Amino acid sequence: GDSVTQMEGPVTLSEEAFLTINCTYTATGYPSLFWYVQYPGEGLQLLLKATKADDKGSNKGFEATYRKETTSFHLEKGSVQVSDSAVYFCALSDRGQGAQKLVFGQGTRLTINP
Amino acid sequence: SAVISQKPSRDICQRGTSLTIQCQVDSQVTMMFWYRQQPGQSLTLIATANQGSEATYESGFVIDKFPISRPNLTFSTLTVSNMSPEDSSIYLCSVDTSGRAGVNEQFFGPGTRLTVL
Question: Which of A104, A106, B34, B105 would be B46's cystine partner, CB 3.0–4.6 Å?
């Protein structure tokens, strides 16, 4: 079945550092890819998405490019802030399966120190 | 987008009892989903609830344990039945508001944090 694998956390960085959170996927069809973020004490929010190969999703300074050749969707940010501390989830939705459900990675907890 | 509310936001329950969680959306949506997030874990889909039809359950989840209602296009309930400590989790509902076939964008409620003693 479809699956998503994220780099293990937790990840701790200093403010203004460069961030990469790796995400790779396995899917039988042509998935759409998402990054969700869960801030402390809050619900899950969509951060960005990409629906086809070579698409780049971006939001709030975060970017991720849909790489079909490497089946990856790594999340990057050039300069992180303390307010970026959260848990980040990579997810896919596979059109080929016909269902509208999301498959999530295990999540990566990010802590940014001032 | 969609604004989703859940009740209760949290609860502490005794083993063997049942809890019904409500999910309310501010707009009409066809597809609603229920997820479970166990402590320190990722989200796992429990079932898909479409208005006017029976819920579709994922492998490992059964209707007797997690009965779902979907009486209209803005509301759904999930019941966690005969609870045990292993059911302690955050339960989240989500909706799909995308109008384009094959591209779903799901919005999540704030979650219900359940602790079973």
Answer: B34
Q: To the nearest whole angstrom, how far is the Cα of A99 from the nearest Cα of chain B?
A: 8
Locate the chain A residue with the closest alpha carbon to B47.
A101
Shortest distance, CA A106 to any CA of chain B (angstroms): 5
Complete DSSP assignment for B21-78: EEEEESS--SEEEEEEE-TT--EEEEEEEETTS--EEPTT--TTTS-EEEEETTEEEE
Record: contact A89-B42, CB cut-off 8 A: yes
For the ranges B15-19, B39-43, B55-59, B102-106, the maximum mean pLDDT occurs at B15-19
Output phi, psi for A93, to 5 deg: -130, 125
User: Which of A46, A100, A104 has the CB atom closest to B31's CB atom?
Assistant: A100
Higher pLDDT, A41 or A12: A12
